[in-house]
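Reading a protein record of the kind used here takes only a little practice. The integers have meaning only within a learned vocabulary of local backbone shapes. With that in mind, consider the following protein and its fold in token form:
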Amino acid sequence: MQQSIKIVLGFCLIILMAGCLSSPYYQKQYPIPHNEWAYNNTPSFKFDVTDTNALYNIYFLMRHTDAYPYSNIWLIVKTKEPGDTTFERTRIEIPMAEPSGKWLGRGMGGIWEHRMPISNEGDTVMLRKLGTWEIELEQNMRMNPLPEVLQVGIRVEKKPKP
């Protein structure tokens, strides 16, 4: 009887913890063919904004193997607001390891996952136009193709109002 109570309490605790995790407003990831991210492979992400008074956090998602040869990644992030015909380009560096070489993301079995902010040094942003926003990612490292990259993506989180 004591064992079954522990199992039920453990199960309830897991459900409660899962309910506390914030779900993304938008999230999508693309697999990288042959685990080599080439310059001309520019994943595109489209999401609709319906609340221009909200604050958003925008993250770059990357999954790579333990053999990824760098401690960072340089990206060209192209953003197109609703109604625009051209993209605004921004070049950013995203650190992925400490100076000691320890990865900053979560790892398991030689695979590492990173969720790093790409908006204004991690600040929240206001997406001031209603409609469909588009973001394209381009790797901008010296090596082409960039080896050991399994997936890349974007995550947009709507910050809860206080």
Observations:
- Helices lie at 2-20.
- The first strand starts at residue 26 and ends at 31.
- The radius of gyration is 19 Å.
- The chain is about 10% helix and 45% strand.
